[in-house]
Design a protein that fits this description.
Chain A has 115 residues and is mostly helical. Helices cover 83% and strands 0% of the residues of chain A. The chains are: A mainly alpha (115), B alpha/beta (233).
Chain lengths: 115, 233
């Protein structure tokens, strides 16, 4: 019973910031969808932690809770990989912008040579 | 104009205020009729002002991108301004501009011409892991190019219009990517690469890195860069 209280509270703590960020439009849609899905998985599991026990039996994992833990780690790893990919793309974009600025500045200084 | 071709000399510079002035003046003196573009890669010192006063056009990046980043900017400039040939020269004075006409002559039967040490001219020496990296790179890339390339990490190179257009759109930022990976990609696309022996001079200012740990790291990076480059299509 105490475990259920812990997981339920955790689920709520996870859900609230997601909803708040979505409400304030601080997350791009692609991330919003991802995190809503996470919320939809976390919420029922928080209130009924034994929900996955039958599935864990099928996959040979001792309990549903450890299955959730395992899937959670895998999921977080994937999110991290995605974020490094995303920052690499952003760096490429800022690089292009930096070049653009340098070209514009060079062109300007050529047009009006310093006296 | 050299041999009726519009030539742009691209000099990537990062905190090279001590040498850039002399480098630019020397290029302009030795190669009249070429245009010098100094790409100031987010320097904290006076590089841009010194280069401008020496008579170069300066493109200033707002922050440091690395040699590859500076070079792509140089090639974009060359592409937009319609140059036929772009020559890359280091800002530390190691590259002697008197070899540039030789590099440009080499463009008659290759799209990329590398000014190479260890090819008979000069007495540049390297030992240890750094030497092994160069042997490995030169072995693999020479086989790909079907001609001897002894110094693929050299930043002294000339390329023609086709490669200016390629490099304006694609030029790796990563260290070593800017030299090794470009050669691999250019060969894969079916362009010819050749080399011209050059003698390198001591730098006008600044110090080269000599730590053995760095040399080992360099070997690792060279190997990694080469493997990645070869795995790409």
């Amino acid at each position: 019973m105490r475990l259920t209280v812990l997981t339920a509270v955790t689920a709520l703590v996870v859900i609230v910031p997601i909803l708040e960020l979505l409400r304030r439009r601080q997350l791009r849609e692609k991330y919003a969808v991802l995190w809503i899905c996470v919320g939809l998985v976390v919420l029922p599991l928080g209130f009924f932690p034994r929900l996955l026990d039958s599935l864990s039996g099928l996959t040979g994992v001792a309990s549903g809770v450890s299955l959730v833990l395992f899937l959670g780690v895998v999921f977080l790893l994937l999110v991290c990989i995605h974020l490094s990919w995303e920052t690499s793309r952003l760096e490429e974009k800022t690089r292009t912008l930096a070049e653009e600025i340098a070209l514009i500045r060079a062109e300007l200084s050529e047009r009006e040579p310093a006296e | 104009m050299i041999n009726n071709r519009r030539v742009l000399i691209i000099v990537p510079a990062w905190n090279e205020a001590g040498s850039i002035g002399d480098v630019v003046r020397e290029i302009r003196g030795e190669l009249p009729g070429t245009h010098v573009l100094v790409v100031d890669d987010g320097s904290a010192d006076d590089t841009a002002r010194v280069a401008r006063e020496a008579g170069a056009t300066v493109a200033q990046l707002p922050y440091n991108l690395g040699v590859g980043g500076a070079m792509r900017l140089g090639y974009r400039y060359a592409k937009d301004a319609g140059y036929d040939v772009a020559v890359q020269i280091d800002a530390d004075g190691q590259h002697d501009p008197r070899y540039v006409p030789k590099l440009i002559d080499g463009l008659q039967d290759a799209s990329l011409v590398i000014g190479a040490r260890f090819a008979g001219e000069g007495e540049y020496q390297v030992r240890g892991p750094r030497h092994w990296s160069m042997v490995m790179l030169s072995f693999v890339l020479s086989r790909m190019a079907r001609c001897k390339l002894t110094d693929t990490t050299s930043g002294f190179r000339a390329c023609d219009r086709a490669l200016i257009e390629l490099f304006a759109a694609w030029y790796p930022v990563e260290y070593l990517g800017d030299t090794v990976e470009t050669v691999v990609r250019v060969l894969r696309l079916g362009y010819r690469v050749s080399q011209v022996p050059v003698a390198m001079r001591p730098r006008f200012a600044g110090v080269p890195s000599k730590s053995p740990a760095k040399a080992v790291l360099y070997l690792g990076r060279a190997f990694f860069t080469l493997l990645l480059a070869l795995s790409r299509r």
